[in-house]
Design brief:
The protein is an alpha+beta fold and 238 residues long. It has 7 helices and 8 strands, in the order H-E-E-E-H-H-E-H-H-E-E-H-E-H-E. A 5-stranded mixed beta sheet has the order 5-6-4-7-8, with helices on both faces. Strands 1-2-3 form a 3-stranded antiparallel beta sheet, sandwiched between helices. Helix 4 packs across helix 5. It is elongated, with a radius of gyration of 26 Å.
């Protein structure tokens, strides 16, 4: 932006008021955010073109704005991605990938009863603790978010069904089960669907993973179920 030729380019294309946010280095080597304001004007007495540049320290305001931007992507209770950010991230991956991925729907069993018995503060603690434990078992590139209530969503990237994956799903269930021991015992159920075998859009995978989750709960909870063709929600659940 501050390069002479760049400034002349803007001037001759009619852009004579410029600004840019950028980072600079302090004498001690630390970086800080600045706003550069530039006015390009011709000297009225000569043919000289002059640039007046003001560098303003906006480090505090910029960091606050970046923090607020990051917070808008997060679930306020667990610190995970919120529903909208999770869905957008998953859609982007599915749209731009030819690899195999596993979509996981996960929730805590009988969560309403936990809230009724122990109170909402305890229920919130269960969600936060479960989120921390689950996140520790996921890779950095996996997508992990909270949809709302006790519902979580995970996209395991670049994996397909295998004995190793089944072991990982069992481990996720066990992590929820031990989250609040010895205060209370909770459990979680998981439903999965595979990309691209079970669908190539978020909506298709979400629907089938949700059906698989229903079957995990139908057959006893505290387990995972993999979507299979023909599964539906037509069976009654107690």
């Amino acid at each position: 932006m501050f390069n002479r030729n760049q400034l002349l380019y803007h001037y001759y294309h009619g852009n004579r008021s410029l600004q840019t946010e950028h980072r600079r280095l302090r004498p001690d080597g630390t970086a800080y955010w600045c706003l550069g304001l530039i006015q390009i004007v011709p000297d009225p007495y000569t043919d000289t073109i002059k640039a007046f540049i003001l560098i303003k320290d906006i480090d505090e305001e910029k960091k606050e704005a970046l923090t607020l931007q990051e917070m808008s992507k997060q679930d306020s209770l667990t610190g995970l991605l919120n529903r909208g950010t999770s869905v957008r991230a998953i859609r982007h991956i599915l749209k731009n990938s030819q690899d195999h991925h596993i979509l996981i729907m996960l929730d805590i069993d009988r969560f309403k009863q936990i809230n009724d018995r122990y109170g909402h503060q305890f229920g919130d603690k269960a969600l936060r603790t479960a989120a921390v434990r689950l996140k520790s078992a996921l890779r950095r590139d996996d997508v992990f978010g909270r949809l709302g209530g006790d519902e979580f969503i995970i996209l395991l990237k670049d994996v397909s069904y295998s004995m190793d994956l089944y072991a990982r799903l069992e481990n996720l269930c066990s992590l929820i089960g031990s989250a609040l021991e010895p205060e209370a015992h909770i459990s979680g159920s998981i439903g999965t669907a595979a990309f691209p075998e079970d669908g190539t859009t978020f909506e298709a995978l979400y629907e089938k993973a949700d059906i698989a989750l229903y079957h995990a709960k139908l057959h006893g909870r505290n387990q995972y179920a993999v979507y299979e063709p023909g599964m539906s929600m037509s069976e009654n659940m107690d």
